[in-house]
Amino acid sequence: MAQLWGGRFTKETDQKVFAFNASILFDQRLFYEDVAGSMAHTKMLEKQGILSKEDASAILDGLSSIRKDVEEGTLEISSSYEDIHSFVEAVLTQRVGDAGKKLHTGRSRNDQVALDMRLYTRKKVKETDAALKQLLSVLCHLMDEHRQTYMPGFTHLQKAQPVTLGFYLGAYFEMFRRDRGRLSDIFERMNYCPLGSGALAGTTYPLDRDFTAKELGFYAPMENAMDGVSDRDYLLEYLSALSILMMHLSRFSEEVILWNSNEYRFVEIDDAYSTGSSIMPQKKNPDIAELVRGKTGRVYGALISLLTTMKGLPLAYNKDMQEDKELAFDAMDTALACIELFSDMLETTTFRKDVMKASATGGFTNATDLADYLVGKGIPFRDAHGIVGRVVVSCDEKDCAIDDLTLEELKAFSPVIEADVYDAISLETCVNKRNTYGGPGAAALETEIAGAKKYLES
User: Fold this and answer.
1) Phi and psi dihedrals of 262, rounded to 5?
2) What is the pTM for the complete model shown?
3) Catalytic residue (one of 78, 79, 80, 277)
4) What is the DSSP letter of 270?
5) Taking the C-alpha atoms of 184, 190, 192 and 198 in order, what is their torsion angle to the nearest 10 degrees?
6) Residue 156 catalytic?
7) Among 178, 317, 366, 401, which residue's beta carbon has the most beta carbons within 10 A?
8) Residue 206 phi/psi, 5° resolution?
9) Which residue is catalytic, options 156, 184, 278, 458?
10) Cα(first)–Cα(last) distance of the chain, in Å?
11) Which CATH class is domain 110-147+164-356?
């Protein structure tokens, strides 16, 4: 197979070298971006008088026919070509003759591949954002549905204070909202066009880079041609954002795995998102959550790999940069699949309200509220803290909750305690009087949910 760069060479490339150098097995997924970039370039060349109307029309028709045939499966992308760019140009020349050889005028494979990868990544950023928005919609619905589903909150994986499930899920809503914000930031920074940068120093042809940028939906051309062909910051940012997103999904998956255990029994995962054991018939395993947790490492790996590849590269383009694709493509596919499956699993999960509420009443989750009650009676907080600590020790010895102690038993720890203490440390009071902004109380949670709904509608 003749190479786009073969004129300088007098010997055929060693086949092992060709296979090692070739990228078509993975960069063929850039096919549609390559055709779109070539069509925009052709229109610009015609506009600038660099290509005749006849040649431009032949090239555009040829590119359209190639795209149509690949879509319909009548044209297969062949691995005998070095990359997707040489495949498209070779097939085009076969179909339209010498006009096809003019497509590359004023363009290098360096700015061509930079364009294709940027277009593809931009598309994936949008797809990831759409999947995240759907996950946030599921979370918002569950927050609304579980405003009064009481459960324990934890620190150090020990019961701390009572909250509601709606409040708990709101924390993850905020994480994924920030993930969307990062994607938006990335889009704003990356949406500039490298086409027209040439190999690294532009071209002597009178290109209209503003035209091609707008034709392809970019804000403007990239300011510096060297940067245009060698920049992969946008991809590093995207992989970084995906890594943080996967970390959030992994944390949430760990919660689901714990909640699904016999010790917690907070959730019942739908059969469609669980698997069984080949030997233990009673098992119902949270495989989707476990796989999301496990696949997080793959996404981290792609980020570290590209950071390592880029760290020692002098300007401008180097063949090392071909390694920006395989692991990045895998990370994009992995993250998108994880978001979508996790969202579906969460939407079909049953939350066992009775078990969650019973758990919230144990573990002395109302101890802080008893201390606050004593403060309200005039006792300094540090003294109140010590009193409640002794109450907890006593309850541990008796194997009971604070609420189970009689008024006389409670008064033995402090004479200021009155009958109103039971209302003050009830589960409902403990949650609903926490109405500072961002808290789990009914009024504060109402504000949070209203804000979440407004955000999703905007």
Assistant:
1) -65, -30
2) 0.93
3) 277
4) -
5) -170
6) yes
7) 366
8) -80, 70
9) 156
10) 53
11) mainly alpha
